[in-house]
Design goal:
Blueprint lengths: L6 E9 L8 E7 L4 E8 L8 H15 L5 H18 L7 E8 L3 E7 L3 E6 L2 E5 L5 H7 L30 E2 L3 E2 L5 E5 L1 H4 L4 H9 L4 H14 L8 E10 L7 H52 L3 H15 L7 H32 L3 H15 L3 H6 L2 H29 L3 H18 L2 H47 L7 H13 L3 H17 L3 H42 L3 H17 L3 H42 L3 H17 L3 H28 L4
Antiparallel strand pairs: 1-11, 2-3, 3-4, 4-5, 5-8, 5-9, 6-7, 6-10, 10-11
Helix pairs in contact: 1-2, 7-8, 8-9, 9-10, 10-12, 12-13, 12-14, 13-14, 15-16, 16-17, 17-18, 18-19, 19-20, 20-21
Length: 691
């Protein structure tokens, strides 16, 4: 019960100054045999998460699980805080400085990562002063400046090591420091020590009666040096009235040791030799594994995943010789194998992704990249080694490639239906996206399809012209045959028949009149009266034109009726029925060769197809909106898992119709749910409720 037999008094102040919020945080825990004090300062702009509080809470939580003064324990606590800051970074990159002090009420250790500062005062002297992990401290060590708290002080904010840093975090832990009665510990954030020197801290200590008056005097001195702006500042001090005194068992232990030393030494020598030999072999294996693994890491940075995979597989094979052990060596062996397993699996996924990417199987490539990033997060050092920007760029390319493919498929279908305008628009959009991504293969494919469509259009137009010429030629031949027949008519009674035909024509009896004209013309030709036969022939032609015009007028009226039906169906949003009516009208207009009407009806068909497509998308959005609304209702009822499930479903459906604004909106809702779930998890953790 070291705590009861010692006297440690802790007091602190943490204030925001004139800032909008306090980015500093201090926390401590005093247990029966050990105590831990932690002070931190956050540097990010996140208003929803306090990086300093998160770091302090994480260190204290980790320390209380397995308290110890060992360097390994302190490093483990700080590394976990660093991991939590990286894990919680979403909108902003969380960053913080931290100072950790641990004591068994007789000795202490401390570790600094950033520019929080630690002092140990003994009497009127300074016993210990921590070093920052900043450019300022490096300049002092290289004797570029003196440690006077003035020159170069601005570089104390230029940190070389801090929590939330990308890449490997270097943590230095002090040696054990023996404490004495009346020692004083002082912990401060940068906001205070950048204004108050160590000498001023000692001067203020001379008049302090206790811990509370000391931090009050320091704050008064700090505030007296301020202008209009006061930074965040935190001061924490521990006055040690009495340290725990350990009993001296040395002489008794020596006597006992002498009695058992000789047989123990013999057994120890034999055991030591065996263990030394086994440990030597183990170290050789580890050295070989790490050498191969390092080569694999080098290939990873070069994005040569095939070679990296071969190296990791070789390292994993070598690591099989590491036997299962208990204790520190066993944990080291297990850690090596687990680390290699993560690297091997991640590299396998990356290799699969690259292979699928090269073969233009973009869907499977995207899945493999996602699996690789997820697996790599099981080892954050390896995760930091990956070029995530390059992988993200390939993932974006895969997403665009799938959209380009869907546009090309749609355009192909439209081209098959002779909807060349819509097909050309979709080909153009796909080509533009491919050009933005530098996808020359897709561009060449699209250009080839556009050429094929243009060739098809030209061929169809050529066939239409040839068909029209054939029909005209046929009509001309029929006319010549009629003329030859008319020549055989005789003039006898031809005039009378011609007059009767004129009367019939005037009455609108076109067909009968034509018959009479033909008889008259034949009579004229038989009689050799070619001039009259020619005149009658002209009358026949005029009669044909009149009859044909009447037929065309009837067919045109029939086509107009189909157009009217199509317009009515379109007003009722019956797009398929409207298009069918328009196509009937188009066939009739084509028969009567009314090109203006044909062009007009083609535009109507295209407009109806566009509206049909818009209506389908609107219905899909409405259905997706119902799912999203279910997520909102579940969120109101605090059914977070259910809300998240509905949001993820609606997000995927919005992506399917390429509504990226709604995708972004739903993603924000998912973040809200995740944040609420995290807050509940933390609350339960603080209350000791099982998860």
């Amino acid at each position: 019960m070291r705590r009861l037999n010692s006297q440690f008094t802790t007091k602190y102040i943490s204030e925001a100054g004139t800032r909008a919020e306090n980015k500093d945080y201090f926390g401590f825990v005093e247990m029966d045999n050990v105590a831990c004090w932690v002070i931190a300062e956050g540097y990010d702009k996140d208003t929803t998460i306090s990086s300093a509080k998160l770091a302090v809470d994480t260190v204290i939580s980790e320390f209380t699980k397995k308290p110890s003064l060992s360097k390994r324990t302190i490093k483990r606590c700080i590394k976990e805080a660093n991991r939590q800051l990286k894990l919680q970074s979403s909108k902003f990159h969380l960053k913080a400085s931290i100072l950790v002090v641990v004591s068994n009420y007789t000795k202490l250790r401390y570790a600094v990562c950033g520019n929080c500062r630690f002092h140990i005062f003994r009497g009127s002297n300074i016993l210990e002063k921590s070093h920052d992990t900043s450019l300022y401290q490096e300049m002092i060590q290289q004797q570029e400046i003196v440690d006077d708290g003035e020159k170069g002080i601005e570089e104390s904010r230029n940190l070389l090591q801090y929590l939330g840093k990308q890449g490997h975090l270097k943590i230095k832990v002090s040696k054990k420091k023996k404490l004495q009665n009346e020692d004083i510990l002082l912990m401060t954030t940068w906001g205070l020590w950048e204004k108050i020197t160590t000498v001023e801290m000692l001067d203020t200590l001379e008049d302090a009666k206790d811990a509370e008056s000391y931090i009050d005097d320091l704050q008064d001195l700090f505030l007296s040096k301020q202008t209009n702006t006061v930074n965040n500042h935190t001061i924490a001090t521990v006055f040690i009235g009495k340290t725990f005194q350990e009993k001296n068992y040395t002489q008794k232990i020596i006597k006992i040791a002498i009695m058992i030393l000789i047989p123990v030494l013999i057994i120890a020598a034999i055991t030591g030799f065996v263990n030394w030999k086994a440990e030597k072999k183990r170290k050789e294996i580890i050295a070989t594994v790490e050498k191969i693994e390092k080569r694999g890491d080098g290939y990873i940075t070069e994005e040569d995943f095939d070679r990296a995979l071969r190296e990791y597989e070789s390292a994993a094979e070598q690591s099989e010789e590491l036997k299962k052990k208990t204790g520190k060596k066993g944990k080291q062996n297990t850690a090596i194998k687990e680390r290699l397993e993560v690297k091997q699996k991640t590299t396998e996924y990356l290799t699969d992704g690259e292979e699928a990417y090269s073969s233009q199987d973009y869907e499977n490539a995207q899945k493999s990249y996602n699996k690789a990033l997820k697996e790599a997060k099981n080892n954050m050092d390896f995760y930091d080694l990956l070029d995530k920007d390059s992988i993200k760029q390939k993932q974006d390319f895969c997403q665009d490639a799938k959209y380009i493919s869907s546009l090309i498929d749609l355009a192909d279908a439209q081209a098959e239906l002779a909807d060349y305008i819509a097909a050309a628009q979709n080909y153009a959009e796909a080509k533009q996206i491919a050009a933005e991504n530098g996808d020359n293969t897709a561009i060449n494919d699209i250009n080839l399809k556009i050429k094929e469509m243009q060739s098809k259009m030209t061929e169809e137009m050529k066939q239409q012209i040839e068909q029209q010429q054939a029909e005209e030629e046929k009509a001309k031949q029929q006319q010549q045959e009629q003329e030859e027949a008319l020549k055989q008519q005789i003039e006898t009674d031809g005039a009378a028949i011609e007059l009767e035909a004129d009367a019939l024509l005037a009455e609108g009896n076109t067909e009968t009149a034509k018959q009479y004209y033909q008889q008259a013309m034949q009579m004229y030709k038989d009689a050799g009266v070619i001039e009259k036969a020619s005149l009658v022939q002209k009358k026949i032609i005029d009669a044909d034109a009149t009859a044909k015009q009447q037929q065309n007028d009837i067919k045109t009226a029939e086509g107009d009726a189909y157009v009217l039906n199509g317009d009515n169906f379109l007003l009722e949003n019956k797009f398929a029925e409207a298009i069918e009516e328009y196509k009937k009208a188009k066939d009739i207009y084509s028969q009567v060769k009314n090109t203006d009407k044909v062009a007009e009806i083609i535009e109507k068909i295209s407009a109806a197809q566009v509206k049909q497509k818009e209506n389908d998308i609107a219905e899909q959005k409405m259905n997706i909106g119902v799912i999203e609304a279910r997520g909102d209702e579940a969120l109101k009822l605090q059914q977070y898992d259910k809300a998240k499930e509905f949001y993820l479903q609606s997000q995927a459906l919005y992506q399917g119709i390429n509504d990226m604004d709604k995708v972004a909106e739903v993603q924000e809702k998912i973040k809200v749910v995740q944040q609420l779930q995290e807050e509940i998890r933390k609350a339960r953790e603080e209350q000791g409720i099982p998860q």
